[in-house]
Amino acid sequence: MMKQLFPIRHVMGYLASLVLSAAALIVIYGDLSKGANMAVLLVTAIIQASLQLFVFMHIGEAADTKKELYINIAYALFVGLVTIFGTLYIFVWGWYA
């Protein structure tokens, strides 16, 4: 009964997120080359995003709503990319009125 009440999967996901965040922070303060820093940060970011999707957003659990879930993720990626590149377009490249 207690095993069902305690969210061990969520606790382990939280601890893994902390470890991945600490690894990314150590890379920033470490003495690696710029390419190695970017590679390690990219790998930890992909693992972190996957962990968030599968553990906390339950992407692999509901088979009946899988289509809607992937549509929502694609929309979120679209909005994020438009925000990032729109900001770069306006502020960095100077294309403002």
Automatic annotation (TrEMBL):
The protein's topology relative to the membrane is:
Multi-pass membrane protein
**Signal peptide start and end residues:** none
Record's InterPro entries?
A: Cyt_c_oxidase_su4_prok, Cytochrome_c_oxidase_bac_sub4, QoxD
Q: Which family does the similarity line name?
A: Belongs to the cytochrome c oxidase bacterial subunit 4 family.
Listed GO CC annotations: cytochrome o ubiquinol oxidase complex; plasma membrane
Q: What is this protein's record name?
A: Quinol oxidase subunit 4
Q: Say which species the protein is native to.
A: Paenibacillus riograndensis SBR5
Identify the EC number(s): 1.10.3.-
UniProtKB keywords: Cell membrane, Membrane, Oxidoreductase, Transmembrane, Transmembrane helix
Its principal location?
membrane
GO BP field: aerobic electron transport chain; ATP synthesis coupled electron transport; electron transport coupled proton transport
**If you read the UniProt record, what top EC class would you report for this enzyme, in one word?**
oxidoreductase
Membrane is among the record's keywords: yes
Enumerate the catalysed reactions. 2 a quinol + O2 = 2 a quinone + 2 H2O
Q: What does this protein do?
A: Catalyzes quinol oxidation with the concomitant reduction of oxygen to water.
- Where is the protein localized? Cell membrane
Q: Which Pfam families match?
A: COX4_pro
Gene Ontology MF annotations: cytochrome bo3 ubiquinol oxidase activity; oxidoreductase activity, acting on diphenols and related substances as donors, oxygen as acceptor; proton transmembrane transporter activity
- TM regions (residue ranges): 12-30, 36-57, 69-96
